[in-house]
Every structure is written in structure tokens, then in C-alpha cells.
Amino acid sequence: MATALAQAPKPSDAEWEARQQLAACYRVFDMLGWSEMIYNHITVKVPDQEGAFLINPFGLHFSEVKASNLVKIDIDGNKLDDSPYPVNRAGFVQHALFHRHLPDAHCIMHSHTTAGMAVASLEGGLRPTNFYACNFIGQIAYHDFEGVTVRDEEGERLLANLGDKRVMLLRNHGILAMGRTLPEAFVKHWALQRACEIQVATMGMGQPIEIAPEVVAVHQRDVHMAQVPGGPGAADFAAMVRLVDRIDRSWRD
């Protein structure tokens, strides 16, 4: 007589909440036009399981990601559940490095947006030419392109170049943002994306006006006063999730 296959254990409440938040984020990225075919990645730690992470199923578009089809993996990218989907090695090599060495990197986001890649491919990178760029001047790291990120040995240079920053432009490649929470990482990514979009638009019209360093310093000193209570990015992300829900609530499944 055939033996029934054992079912995977039901996720804990903490894991399910993390799954829903991450699935919502993939849908928000898609709504904002930040999808890249089946590529790019957002990862989060599973709150109640040391060394466990959630990542998108390799092969699905961001618009197809749901709480239930996210893949749970360990720090080396090995699957910890019975998901039928593979994991993109190019996705997790870089993320695993930061998750392993940076305790505050709860969530990591990597994208290939047009504006992000354009500014990452520009001599001088992000310039202090607009409101959002001022958030990042002196707070953003850079790493030279070394090819697709599938080699562990690149990790030492990535960490060294990141230093104490938590936002990076991967030269000729794209945006990397991380946060102590998913909403914090999201609002960093969103603001950097806006900074890049505006820089690209401005440079297309002529010579940008650069903001003086002393004004950038005042901006960075005071910008927290414009935040809504609840933690960095919390209200911003919640608003985006409400918009996604009007389009399609299947991410919650």
C-alpha cells in the first residue's frame, strides 16, 4: 500500500506574517514598474527561525508571487521547504553575504530599474541635484561591476565597499537597499529610485544645479521630521499595499 507523502509543517504566525509582507512587496514592486522579467530579488529573514530566509520562486514574475509560494532557504541558499521552485543563485549569493555578516540587514532589495541602472552606469553616480538625492549623499556605497554575482569570492569586496552604508549602487548593474525592517528597506529603495529618475530627467534637459554640501547636511539633519510615526517606511509601505489590494489580493494566499 502506498504511503502518503508527509505534508510540510504549517508556517508559524510570525513566518506567515513575513510571507504576506514580502509577497505584498513583490506586488508593489510590480505595480510601480520595477519588475525585471523573472529576475531580481527581495529577501527577508524569517523572524522566529534563526538562519532561515524567504525569497521569490525563480521562474515566476513578481506579479505571480504569493505568500504561499515564496521559498524558504537557509543562509547557503538550500531549500528548507518542499517548494517545487528553484532558487536563483545569482539572487542569493549577494543577499546571503549581507544577511550573514550584517545583523541589521533584515530585508534586502535588489532591482534593475532603468533609472537605477542608468545612474549606476554614470561617471560620478548619484549627484546632489534633487530633494531625494540629498537623502543619500555621503550615505551611499558603490561597487564596481565584476560580472553576474554567482561567485562567493566577490563577497569580501562587496562588504568592504559597503562599509557602514546600507544603500549601494552596483556600478553598471543596479540598486541595492537593505533595512532593519522590510518597510525601511522599501522606503530607501523608493527614494533612491526617485532620486535616479529625477537625475536622469534633469540631465536630459541640460546642466543640473548641484546643491551645496552645507544644505545637504541640513537636509539630512532635518529629514526625519517629515516622517510619519510608526517607523521608517511603515506608513509609506502600508499605503502601497492598500493600492495593490485594489488591483489583486491573491498575494495574501
How would you characterize this protein structure?
- InterPro entries: Aldolase-II_Adducin_sf, Aldolase_II/adducin_N, Aldolase_II/adducin_N_sf.
- Pfam families: Aldolase_II.
- Belongs to the aldolase class II family.
- The structure is a single chain.
- This protein has a seven-stranded mixed sheet, with helices on both faces.
- The longest helix has 22 residues, at 182-203.
- A hairpin with a 6-residue loop joins strand 1 and strand 2 (52-55).
- By secondary structure, it is of the alpha+beta class.
- It is globular.
- The protein has a single domain (13-245), classed as L-fuculose-1-phosphate Aldolase (3-Layer(aba) Sandwich).
- It starts with 12 loop residues before the first helix and ends in a 6-residue tail after the last helix.
- The protein has helices at 13-31, 89-101, 114-120, 131-134, 155-162, 182-203, 213-222, 234-247; strands at 41-45, 52-55, 71-74, 107-111, 141-143, 167-170, 174-179.
- Helices cover 38% and strands 12% of the residues.
- Mean pLDDT is 93; it is low at 1-6.
